Every structure is written in structure tokens, then in C-alpha cells.
Amino acid sequence: MSQHAEVFAPPPEALGGARDGKRNLVGQSRAQLVAELAALGEKPFRAKQLWHWIYHRGVTDFAEMTTLSKDFRLRLAETHAVRRPEVAVAQVSQDGTRKWLLRLPDGQEVETVYIPEEDRGTLCVSSQVGCTLTCKFCHTGTQRLVRNLSPAEIVGQIMVARDGLGEWPGDDSGAPAEGRKITNIVLMGMGEPLYNYDNVATAMRIAMDGEGLSISKRKITLSTSGVVPEMERCGRELDVNLAVSLHATNDETRDWIMPINKKYPLKMLLDACRNYPGTHNARRITFEYVMLKGVNDSEDDARRLIRLLKDIPAKVNLIPFNPWPGSFFECSDRATITRFADILSAAHISSPVRATRGEDILAACGQLKSTSERKKKAERDAAAPSQP
Ligand code: SAH
Ligand code: SF4
After folding, report:
1. Element (H or E) spanning 23, and its range?
2. Cα separation of 378 and 22, whole Å?
3. Taking the alpha carbons of 134, 234, 199, 83 in that order, is the dihedral positive or negative?
4. pLDDT digits (tens, 9 = 90+) for 205-226
5. In this structure, which residue's CA is closest to atom 8 in ligand 2?
6. What is the per-residue pLDDT across 52-79, written as a single tens digit (0 to 9) for each?
7. Apex CA 47: angle with CA 42 and CA 49, to 5°?
8. 177 φ, ψ to 5°?
9. Nearest CA, atom 5, ligand 1
10. Which residues form ligand 1's pocket by a CB distance below 6 Å?
11. Most confident residue range from 174-178, 265-269, 374-378
């Protein structure tokens, strides 16, 4: 475990223990589940059956797991539970985007967002409570990191969303893939997933498992601000799509708006992208680029960006800056964004402008934060003497 992972580790109740003494089965890898059941004197095939009920059918009550013997169900219910994070608030935007504020066993909170589109449904999952990285344009970055999420809390977000969208298959035939509401997972919620790699990896392996949630690794994208030492391992072990929050084309600007750049500057980051396993023309790295007026949106920036990405199979996602209470930056003008996109397109770099979704419920990129944190900040501001 890295030093960061140790310092910010989830408490025992988040890992699936404590509260009423029952151990949560959600978030355990297949191997852990087999071991858990072996300790109860049960054979490995029981783990397979349980896995099906938990992750394919979405059942939380052991009594409904009818392929298990009654005796086993009763014994399990005494010592174990199937739990999701508790939904504190569920909101639906005018545009159909949904946001869940989840309360974790230790009282901490995170947000999960579902974005329906014509041809897919994307779930934006959080990996940490807060973030240590203090990117200047990001709301989450103003909330000091409280802790990493456990595998149960990460995979639990997918399960809560499936509950909310009513998309567990009602029988053993399974939901047809094309009829699914959640087709894609993006690790683009609160936190830096590569600072919580082990727990994110366990959760994503559960999500990918074909006998459960069954979300293909091709449909999972992990977004990083550029934690260079973890990138190679992520590609090699998980083989998920990579998105990189680039946001600037020179070290000076990137140092300012993304302090992690001082540790892993542009050259190092782009080398790690070049070496990301499994990258080829059919599977490009997405570079996220938030459009900040007068900061990173000049024509020179666009041209520098083309040079930086020259030998990397890349696409660029231009994200209009989403303001939040107290945010310092402004979004670039529409015409500037279009011009920027046109320069990239002329160099054959695909550069769609990301549609802003769920703005009315503060669900857009970079706007997520624990609600209680928002309240605390509002209280602090109200108590502070006014600035001249
Ligand atoms: N920590 C990871 C995962 C978060 S992803 C990362 O930084 O990549 C969230 C995406 O939204 C990132 O690309 C982030 O830079 C971007 N973002 C943050 N604040 C934003 C804002 N106010 N407006 C638009 N995009 C923002
Ligand atoms: Fe953290 Fe990503 Fe926000 Fe930066 S952009 S503060 S890394 S969540």
C-alpha cells in the first residue's frame, strides 16, 4: 500500500465491517468471497451463487436468494449483509441527468452522477471523499481530502444507480446489453482515482465481471490529473480507457492551475501517455481540456497542443468551464471554443466540446462536493468578518 493509501485509508466500517457487527459482502473480490465462505465451512460454488444474486440480480435480502439452502441463508444473515451506501439525496435535472448524494457509514458524503444520452448512459463515479490535489478550477479541489473510498463504496455507487434507475434484471435471463441504462462508467467524480488505485482496481474488477455487473473494460474510463507512477500499472492490470486532465500546454500555466504538475511536469506526463499499454489508433487516450477564458484558450495554445500530442493516439475533449460558488475563473467565449476546436480538427485531432449536463443540480464536471462541506463553508463565510 502506498503511503498516501495508508494515511487516507477508509475506516473498518467502510470496508464492510462494524456497524451492527455484520460484514458487508459487497466490495469483496471473488477470491475474498470464496475465503469468506470457506471460513463458514462452505464450498467455492456457493461464492459463485452469491455473486450472481449480489451483482447480477441486485438482491440485498438473503431470504430472496432462493438457490441457497434455507439453513445457509439464515446463517449468513446472522453474520453478513449486502449493503450499499445510503442515499441521502437523489436529484433529477431538467435534462434527465441524475445525481445521488451518498452518506457513508462514517458520516462522510460523496456524489455520483448519471448522464443519459441517446446512444448510451454514463455513470460518473467518485473515488475519494474530497481531493488532495487542489486544482484551482475544481470545486472538489477546495474540499480537503478526507479519505479514500473502499471497494464497497466505489462499486456500491453503481449498485445505487441501478437501484435508482430500476435496471436490475427481474429474472435469470439478464438485461439485454442494448437495453441497458448504464452502459459506460467514468471515474470522473470526486477524487483522484490513481491515488486510491488498489480500491479502485478491486471495484472495477467486480464491475467488469461477466457474471455480475458485466460492464466491459472497453466501456470504463479512468480519468487522472497525471499521477505518472501509477499510469502504466493501471493500463497493464486493468486495461481500461485512459483520460488525462491536461488543461494547459506549458508547464508555467499547468503549475499554476494544477499543482500536481510541479511533481509530474508535462514532458513526464506525455511520456507516460505514450507508454500507456494498449493505446493505438482504435483506442485513443482522451485529453480533457477545460476552457478557461484568457488562461489556456489562445490560438497559440491550440497549436502547442497539437505539437504536444503529435505522436500520441489522442482525442481532445474540450470542457466548457463550469462555475461554482466562489470560483475564480470564467469560461471561454463560445466563439473562442469553436475556433480552438477548429484548429485541432484541421490537424485531424477529434475535439468534441463536452455538453454541460445537469447544471441546475450542480452535477456538471468539477462541481461535485459533499453537501455538508458546502454548508460548512457557507457557515464559515457567514461568520467571517467581511473583506474590505
Ligand atoms: N481527479 C481526476 C478525476 C476527476 S475528473 C482528474 O482530475 O482527472 C473531472 C474532470 O472535470 C477533470 O478533467 C477535471 O479537470 C474537470 N473539471 C474540474 N473542475 C471543472 C470545472 N469547474 N469545469 C469543468 N471541468 C472541470
Ligand atoms: Fe482533484 Fe481532479 Fe479536481 Fe484536480 S480536477 S482537484 S485532481 S478531482
Report:
1. strand 23-24
2. 37
3. positive
4. 999 999 999 999 999 999 999 9
5. 191
6. 999 999 999 999 999 999 999 999 999 9
7. 110
8. -55, -40
9. 188
10. 135, 137-138, 188, 192, 223-225, 245, 288, 290, 319, 321-322, 365-366
11. 265-269
Distances (CA, A) of 90 to 37, 116, 143, 323, 365: 35, 16, 21, 22, 18
Question: Could you give the CA distance from residue 64 to residue 73 in angstroms, rounded to a whole number?
Answer: 9
* Pairing verdict, β 184-187 and 220-224: parallel
HSE (side-chain half, CA atoms, 13 Å) at 231: 26
Q: Is the pTM of the predicted complex or chain greater than 0.90? A: yes
* Alpha carbon of residue 14 to chain centroid: 17
How far, in Å, CA of 34 to CA of 55, rounded? 15
CA-based nearest residue to 224, from 133, 358, 346:
133
What is the residue whose three cell numbers read 492490470? 237
Question: What Rg value do the Cα atoms of the chain yield, rounded?
Answer: 22
What the block records as the C-alpha cell of 179 is 437495453
Residue 388: all three cell numbers together: 474590505
Q: Whose CA is nearest to atom 21 of ligand 1?
A: 366
Residues 285 and 243: beta-carbon distance below 8 Å = yes
